[in-house]
Input
Amino acid sequence: MKILLVNPETPVTFWGLKHALKFMSRKALLPPLGLLTVAAMLPEPWEKKLVDMGVTTLNDEDIRWADYVFVGGMSIQSESARSVIDRCKALGATIVAGGPLCTVFHEDFDDVDHLVLGEAEVTLPPFLRDLAAGRPQHMYQSEQRADVNDTPVPLWELVDVNQYGMLPLQYSRGCPFDCDFCDVTVLFGHKMRTKRPESILEELDKLYALGWRREVFFVDDNFIGNRKTLKDEALPAITDWMERHRYPFSFYTQTSINLADDDELMHMLAQAGFGCVFIGIETVGEDGLVECNKVQNRNRDLVESVHKIQRFGMQVQGGFILGFDSDPPSIFDDMIDFIQRSGIVTAMVGLLLAPRGTRLYERMARENRLLHNSSGDNTDGQTNLVPKMGLAKLRGGYRKVVSTVYSQDRFYERIWQFLETYKPAHKSRLGHSWRDARSFFSCVYCLGIKDGGRRQFWRLLLWALRHPRDLHLVMLLAVMGYHFRQVFADLESREERATSRAS
Output
């Protein structure tokens, strides 16, 4: 049996870091962990090929070669996924589709031959059994949650890891919280399911054997959702492994803000090699936090919580949302002020979206305020609901926030604010490969000679050269700022063209 696995193309987005990755000679930020894991679940004798459209082209010859084409993807990849499916159908290929996109919007993909929905550890085995018996069904779905210890090590041999900025790994699924705009619990539930330490170490061994010596992203939606198991089992094992291997990786993950309440946990994360965490701040007003049921963020000094985590050696990246019903007229200026004071260099500011299946989606439907399905990209200046403040005012305020916080002066100002509180636990390394050397000089040429913010860049670079421990991080922040400016400049250009056409 010949199996082609296709990861659809992802549009240029805030998190795709396309404009930054070109400095690093990388084509995409992350390989498709889901498809690589599915590939490892297929019978070993089958021939398998993976085409990640983020790094290479899908050719008709690839499709004709395959007996079955497996298509995965997230909602943000829907347009490309639809195109891939149509191409496969035109060439007579048999299609198997799954992943979050098809699980949530399966009625939009009813023309696919076989839909394998939900968690593949549960729904893929019955499909494979039926396929072997010659009677595969159209749809496989289940309410059952997978035991993540049954998840195999991804089939990394199917990709060239050197095409990517970081490699993904998963420790847990689920989240104990219940934010009304979030679809994580719709897909994975509230109960935290964690892997045994030996499973995590097996995956780390695999990445190490590949020769990988860069960032590793634990893709968990809330890495600290089960703090006891994390502290008692996983982190001690990871720390021991990292020490024995002389810290070959720098870890990045997503957590909730209550991380700041646990000094022991922050110390353990930093010692294990976690240098960056993404945290959903969402909004700076208490009323907004009540509205979206963000209980973990309430009744605390959010700026101090961020600074505390950074003092423990972890950079904080933050998610922010505009468009809550309770947002006051001052929300745009308040958010700018908060982001600057917090020193959150990478601040993902987006408009409120209502993903299908969430409590927010249901409320918007009851109030007849839904416009369309969520695109999955909350930084494209669009929303799929009718905001109480009015769409024009919301979009105008959003443009003000992103154009301000990602102006070169404000962005570099935040880097300095961050460096004042950041106390790294381990030495950051620039690396010694030709890729890293070329990346460094390409960055210096673009940001230090061609770019408009030359003065701020050179001041930062000269500081970093006197503090070589932080050189890699400082350069990374600089090129990410370049990417963000390009993304929001493109957004402004698209809106101007749309306005021009409308008039």
Residues 471-502 form the longest helix (32 residues). The two ends are 55 Å apart (CA to CA). Residues 428-434 have pLDDT under 50 and may be disordered.
